[in-house]
Amino acid sequence: MAGEGKDARVAKMKLKIPPVVQVIMSAVAMWLINNQLPLLDFKFLLQHLVSGALMACGLIIAIVAVGDFRTAKTTVNPTTPSEANTLIIKGPYRISRNPMYLGMLITLSGWAVWLGNYAAIGILLIFFWYMTMFQIKPEEEALKEKFGADYEAYCKKVRRWI
Protein backbone atom coordinates (compact mmCIF):
# COMPACT_ATOMS: atom_id res chain seq x y z
CA MET A 1 0.00 0.00 0.00
CA ALA A 2 3.03 2.29 0.15
CA GLY A 3 2.78 5.02 -2.42
CA GLU A 4 -0.98 4.70 -2.78
CA GLY A 5 -3.23 7.62 -1.99
CA LYS A 6 -5.77 7.66 0.80
CA ASP A 7 -8.68 7.02 -1.58
CA ALA A 8 -6.99 3.93 -3.02
CA ARG A 9 -6.45 2.48 0.48
CA VAL A 10 -10.04 3.16 1.49
CA ALA A 11 -11.30 1.60 -1.75
CA LYS A 12 -9.22 -1.53 -1.06
CA MET A 13 -10.56 -1.70 2.49
CA LYS A 14 -14.11 -1.70 1.13
CA LEU A 15 -13.29 -4.93 -0.67
CA LYS A 16 -12.48 -6.66 2.61
CA ILE A 17 -14.99 -8.75 4.47
CA PRO A 18 -16.57 -6.60 7.22
CA PRO A 19 -15.45 -7.53 10.75
CA VAL A 20 -18.93 -8.57 11.92
CA VAL A 21 -19.16 -10.95 8.95
CA GLN A 22 -15.70 -12.27 9.87
CA VAL A 23 -16.98 -13.04 13.37
CA ILE A 24 -20.00 -14.88 11.99
CA MET A 25 -17.87 -16.83 9.51
CA SER A 26 -15.40 -17.74 12.27
CA ALA A 27 -18.18 -18.86 14.62
CA VAL A 28 -19.71 -21.05 11.90
CA ALA A 29 -16.28 -22.50 11.05
CA MET A 30 -15.75 -23.33 14.73
CA TRP A 31 -19.11 -25.06 14.89
CA LEU A 32 -18.38 -27.07 11.72
CA ILE A 33 -14.95 -28.10 13.00
CA ASN A 34 -16.47 -29.06 16.32
CA ASN A 35 -18.92 -31.37 14.55
CA GLN A 36 -16.29 -32.91 12.29
CA LEU A 37 -13.50 -33.47 14.81
CA PRO A 38 -15.05 -34.86 17.99
CA LEU A 39 -11.74 -36.48 18.99
CA LEU A 40 -10.44 -33.00 19.75
CA ASP A 41 -13.21 -32.17 22.21
CA PHE A 42 -12.44 -31.08 25.74
CA LYS A 43 -14.58 -30.63 28.83
CA PHE A 44 -13.91 -29.03 32.20
CA LEU A 45 -15.77 -28.04 35.31
CA LEU A 46 -17.73 -24.77 34.86
CA GLN A 47 -16.95 -24.76 31.13
CA HIS A 48 -20.24 -23.13 30.16
CA LEU A 49 -19.95 -20.58 32.94
CA VAL A 50 -16.46 -19.62 31.75
CA SER A 51 -17.62 -19.43 28.13
CA GLY A 52 -20.62 -17.30 29.06
CA ALA A 53 -18.42 -14.94 31.04
CA LEU A 54 -16.00 -14.60 28.12
CA MET A 55 -18.82 -13.94 25.66
CA ALA A 56 -20.43 -11.39 27.98
CA CYS A 57 -17.11 -9.60 28.58
CA GLY A 58 -16.36 -9.51 24.88
CA LEU A 59 -19.77 -8.10 24.03
CA ILE A 60 -19.53 -5.47 26.78
CA ILE A 61 -16.09 -4.34 25.62
CA ALA A 62 -17.27 -4.03 22.01
CA ILE A 63 -20.51 -2.24 22.95
CA VAL A 64 -18.71 0.26 25.20
CA ALA A 65 -16.15 0.90 22.43
CA VAL A 66 -18.92 1.53 19.88
CA GLY A 67 -20.64 3.78 22.41
CA ASP A 68 -17.49 5.91 22.72
CA PHE A 69 -17.51 6.40 18.94
CA ARG A 70 -21.21 7.29 18.96
CA THR A 71 -20.72 9.77 21.82
CA ALA A 72 -17.89 11.44 19.88
CA LYS A 73 -20.11 11.47 16.76
CA THR A 74 -17.46 9.79 14.64
CA THR A 75 -17.76 6.90 12.21
CA VAL A 76 -17.81 3.30 13.40
CA ASN A 77 -17.64 2.07 9.80
CA PRO A 78 -14.44 -0.01 9.64
CA THR A 79 -14.10 0.50 5.89
CA THR A 80 -13.91 4.30 6.11
CA PRO A 81 -11.42 5.26 8.84
CA SER A 82 -10.56 8.40 6.86
CA GLU A 83 -14.04 9.69 7.78
CA ALA A 84 -13.14 9.65 11.48
CA ASN A 85 -13.29 13.15 12.92
CA THR A 86 -12.04 12.37 16.43
CA LEU A 87 -9.23 10.24 17.80
CA ILE A 88 -10.84 8.24 20.63
CA ILE A 89 -8.35 7.60 23.45
CA LYS A 90 -10.63 7.20 26.50
CA GLY A 91 -12.48 4.26 28.00
CA PRO A 92 -11.34 0.92 26.60
CA TYR A 93 -9.16 2.81 24.09
CA ARG A 94 -6.74 3.51 26.97
CA ILE A 95 -5.96 -0.23 27.08
CA SER A 96 -6.36 -1.32 23.46
CA ARG A 97 -6.27 0.62 20.19
CA ASN A 98 -8.84 -1.85 18.88
CA PRO A 99 -11.30 -2.72 21.65
CA MET A 100 -14.11 -3.46 19.18
CA TYR A 101 -11.98 -6.16 17.55
CA LEU A 102 -10.68 -7.29 20.94
CA GLY A 103 -14.29 -7.67 22.09
CA MET A 104 -15.03 -9.75 19.00
CA LEU A 105 -12.00 -11.97 19.69
CA ILE A 106 -12.98 -12.46 23.34
CA THR A 107 -16.56 -13.29 22.31
CA LEU A 108 -15.26 -15.85 19.81
CA SER A 109 -13.01 -17.24 22.55
CA GLY A 110 -16.10 -17.80 24.68
CA TRP A 111 -17.75 -19.60 21.78
CA ALA A 112 -14.66 -21.82 21.36
CA VAL A 113 -14.78 -22.69 25.06
CA TRP A 114 -18.53 -23.38 24.82
CA LEU A 115 -17.92 -25.78 21.93
CA GLY A 116 -15.04 -27.37 23.80
CA ASN A 117 -12.93 -28.31 20.79
CA TYR A 118 -9.19 -27.68 20.43
CA ALA A 119 -9.45 -27.28 16.65
CA ALA A 120 -11.98 -24.46 17.12
CA ILE A 121 -9.28 -22.56 18.99
CA GLY A 122 -7.24 -22.55 15.77
CA ILE A 123 -9.95 -20.41 14.20
CA LEU A 124 -9.23 -17.79 16.86
CA LEU A 125 -5.65 -17.57 15.64
CA ILE A 126 -6.82 -17.20 12.04
CA PHE A 127 -9.30 -14.48 13.06
CA PHE A 128 -6.56 -12.65 15.02
CA TRP A 129 -4.15 -12.83 12.07
CA TYR A 130 -6.74 -11.80 9.47
CA MET A 131 -8.00 -8.85 11.49
CA THR A 132 -4.46 -7.63 12.15
CA MET A 133 -3.30 -7.90 8.55
CA PHE A 134 -6.35 -6.95 6.54
CA GLN A 135 -8.34 -4.68 8.83
CA ILE A 136 -6.24 -3.15 11.59
CA LYS A 137 -3.05 -2.36 9.68
CA PRO A 138 -4.89 -0.55 6.84
CA GLU A 139 -6.94 1.34 9.44
CA GLU A 140 -3.75 2.34 11.24
CA GLU A 141 -2.30 3.75 8.03
CA ALA A 142 -5.44 5.78 7.37
CA LEU A 143 -5.55 7.05 10.95
CA LYS A 144 -1.87 7.96 10.87
CA GLU A 145 -2.50 9.97 7.72
CA LYS A 146 -5.58 11.60 9.24
CA PHE A 147 -4.32 12.39 12.77
CA GLY A 148 -0.52 12.45 12.26
CA ALA A 149 1.64 12.97 15.34
CA ASP A 150 -1.32 12.62 17.73
CA TYR A 151 -2.03 9.12 16.43
CA GLU A 152 1.64 8.16 16.47
CA ALA A 153 1.93 9.29 20.10
CA TYR A 154 -1.19 7.28 20.95
CA CYS A 155 0.29 4.19 19.27
CA LYS A 156 3.40 4.52 21.44
CA LYS A 157 1.28 4.54 24.60
CA VAL A 158 -1.37 1.94 23.77
CA ARG A 159 -0.84 -1.51 22.26
CA ARG A 160 -2.67 -2.74 19.17
CA TRP A 161 -4.63 -5.52 20.92
CA ILE A 162 -3.86 -5.44 24.68
Structural overview:
The chain is mostly helical and 162 residues long. It has one domain (18-34, 45-157). It is built from six helices and no strands. Helix 5 packs antiparallel against helix 6. The longest helix is centred in the last third of the chain and has 30 residues, at 118-147. It is elongated. The model has no long low-confidence stretch (mean pLDDT 91).
Distance between the termini: 26 Å
Number of strands: 0
Strand content: under 5%
On the 0-100 scale, what is the average pLDDT? 91
Unreliable residue runs:
none
What is the overall silhouette?
A: elongated
The number of helical segments is 6
Helical amount among residues, as a percent range? Answer: 55-70%
Count of discrete structural domains:
1
- Secondary-structure class: mainly alpha
What is the makeup of the main sheet?
none
Rounded Rg: 17 Å
Strand and helix order = HHHHHH
Quick gist of this model?
The chain has 162 residues and is mainly α.
How is the topology of this model organized?
Layout: H1 6-14, H2 19-36, H3 47-71, H4 99-115, H5 118-147, H6 149-157
Helix pairs in contact: 1-5, 2-4, 2-5, 3-4, 4-5, 5-6
Task: Give the tags.
mainly alpha; 162 residues; 67% helix
